[in-house]
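User: Second chain of the day. Same drill as before.
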Amino acid sequence: MKDLTDAATNAATAARRRAAMARGVGVMTDHFAAHAENATVTDIEGNRLIDFAAGIAVVNTGHRHPRVIEAVRAQLDAFTHTCHQVLPYENYVRLAERLNDATPGDFAKKTIFVTTGAEACENAIKIARAATKRDAVIAFTGAFHGRTFMGMTLTGKVVPYKKGFGGMMPDVFHAPFPCPLHGVTTKDSLAAIDKLFKADLDPARVAAIVFEPVQGEGGFYPAPTDFVVAIRALCDRHGIVMIADEVQTGFARTGRLFAMEHHGVAADLVAMAKGLGGGLPIAAVTGRAEIMDAAEPGGLGGTYGGNPLGIAAGLAVLDVIEEEGLCERADRLGAALKARLEAIRPQMPELADIRGPGFMVAAEFIGPNGPDAALTARVREQALARGLLLLTCGVHGNVIRFLAPLTIPDDQFAQALDILEEAMLAARA
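Assistant: Same format as last time:
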């Protein structure tokens, strides 16, 4: 067996990673985590990072929240797996009941549990097809819905998600997502769908329209309310299932439990994951009972779907969000971050846009020659060198997305904003 005595350094472990792991698993940093607590991650060399990534919006309640850890430990002492389809357990039912009550929409709902956000999106499409007896699906440019075959087909970005993987799934069509900064209005998006219906696709063949209330990987572009309301009306007019992908927007991130609450209309199906488990893998689809019941028994599920540890974590996460007022805290943190970015803006003319509801905030950099991915990368690198972990996103790679845990202590948050300002100005120097 290989001698692992060199595992205490990041550089040595990174070399082992490159030798042992497929390069298709992209890794952003060479800091290897050893311990995490709330918004702090300590690597194997003892370096401390302020985490403004949260595992890509997974630990909204912070790393190792005591309530989540307590719930998972209690479940460990009971049992870790039976497969719900073989031997069910009560807390699966209880979490389903709570999600049925919590998701937007004044109608009867039902829920299924799976393991990942991609699975949630795929199962939402399966359910919509079963309910409508139709095949076609409309998604949007810039969307991200996963790396499985249907997930990457729905995704509106070729590199790196589709490149080299051959033909995509049939009967998936893309329309432009509204983004006024880049010259695409709600009117443009709706006109493109209308043109699609006239030229290529009978709306009577469309099973679902799926969208993110705030695009995640695509650049943190919020869906305008007039767009969401129009999609709802379009779905109602043609008997199409409206699917909201709340995998990244869910669980207090946008200042509401679900981002659809900002728009005053409800989707028929909601896909969710990430923040639900507080660090444990769990995903769900919740929606109209009559649509959710369209699939035959055995058509949905999976061996690990609704794993007992993830279920226990999910119940604790909902408690923490409610008891600690994390929706309200997301609004406060997001407002403070946006105010600080606005204060930096006069010194950084490339900072073209600051946006996002709650604490799902983005900063987009556009230089004289267009979207500036190089400057964006330098901001991230300068921040990391100072102990602040940031994520980039966007079709052009020119967006910093801010996803710190909603539980980050105020003093640490203030420290992170100071580091951010230093990093931004240093990146421009």
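Residues 1-5 have pLDDT under 50 and may be disordered.

User: Great, on to the next one.
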